[in-house]
Each structure stands twice: as structure tokens, then as C-alpha cells.
Amino acid sequence: MPLTYPKNGETLVLEVEACIGCGACVDVCPHAVFKIEEGKARIASKATCMECGACARNCPVGALAVEAGVGCASAIIIGKLRGTAPTCGGDSCCGSSTKADCC
Ligand code: SF4
Ligand code: SF4
Questions:
Q1: Residue nearest to atom 1 of ligand 2 (CA)
Q2: How far apart are CA 53 and CA 46, in angstroms?
Q3: Residue nearest atom 6 of ligand 1, based on CA coordinates
Q4: Sign (positive/negative) of CA torsion 92, 81, 53, 28?
Q5: How far apart are CA 18 and CA 101, in angstroms?
Q6: Do the Cβ atoms of 88 and 99 come closer than 8 Å?
Q7: Are the C-beta atoms of residues 28 and 66 closer than 8 Å to each other?
Q8: Rounded to two decimals, what is the model's pTM?
Q9: E strand intervals along 2-83
Q10: To test ligand 1's pocket by mutation, which of 1, 4, 19, 31 has the most ligand atoms within 8 angstroms of CB?
């Protein structure tokens, strides 16, 4: 399980009315913050959001906004180099035992 902190994800905003349910945010979010219910994205776990900005960058209708913060800088840089969402790529530098625990 990703670590959670009280202030995580506080800048994340989802406009449910604008959402077309494409699932891109579910696919790119490294912390499983979203789920799709009745054809719309829902925030399932705001406290695990690291404000990386991947969801907002990939939403085709601008239904998501987040102030991208520092998050795991290593994961963000690797993601940018690979053209993917933030990922540690299995090279955990923070001591997490699995990729799912990282970032
Ligand atoms: S900002 Fe990053 S961690 Fe937060 S919901 Fe979006 S993709 Fe997930
Ligand atoms: S990426 Fe945007 S439109 Fe697609 S499911 Fe997520 S919030 Fe909805």
C-alpha cells in the first residue's frame, strides 16, 4: 500500500460532470486514486495522491486539475524520460519492496 498523509491530494479536483469515463486517469495514476463507477471517474483514495499531475495531463476533456508538486522526483523524471506516467521502474531508491509501494 502507498503511504498516506493528511495533506496528500489536497489540490486534486475532479469535475465529475465533465468526465466521459474514458479511464485514462485510472490507467496512468500510479497510486490507484481513481475508479470508474457508472461511467464516471470517482476519487477512491485521495490521500494516496502524490500530486504528480499525470491524470490531469492525460484527461482528454480537462475534467481533472491538480497542482503538480514534487512527489517522488526520481519517478517523475524516469516517467518523463520514458514518456510514461511516473514510475520507479522497479529500481526502488526509497526502500519500498515493490513497485506498487513506490511513489
Ligand atoms: S496527481 Fe498523480 S497520484 Fe494524484 S491522482 Fe493524479 S495521477 Fe494519481
Ligand atoms: S481521464 Fe478524464 S474523462 Fe477520462 S475517466 Fe478520468 S476524469 Fe474522466
A1: 59
A2: 13
A3: 55
A4: negative
A5: 31
A6: yes
A7: no
A8: 0.70
A9: 13-14, 34-37, 40-43, 64-65
A10: 31
CA–CA dist 101, 60 (Å, integer): 28
Q: Which fold has domain 13-101?
A: Alpha-Beta Plaits (3.30.70)
Sequence spans of domains, the chain: 13-101
Q: pLDDT per position in the chain (103 positions), as tens? A: 666 555 677 899 999 999 999 999 999 999 999 999 999 999 999 989 988 899 999 999 999 999 876 556 666 677 777 887 666 555 545 444 344 445 4
Residue with CA nearest ligand 1 atom 8: 29
Q: How far apart are CA 51 and CA 65, in angstroms?
A: 10
The CB density around residue 59, as the number of other CB atoms within 10 Å, is: 21
Q: Which amino acid is at 76?
A: I
Q: d(Cα 71, Cα 77) in Å, to the nearest integer?
A: 11
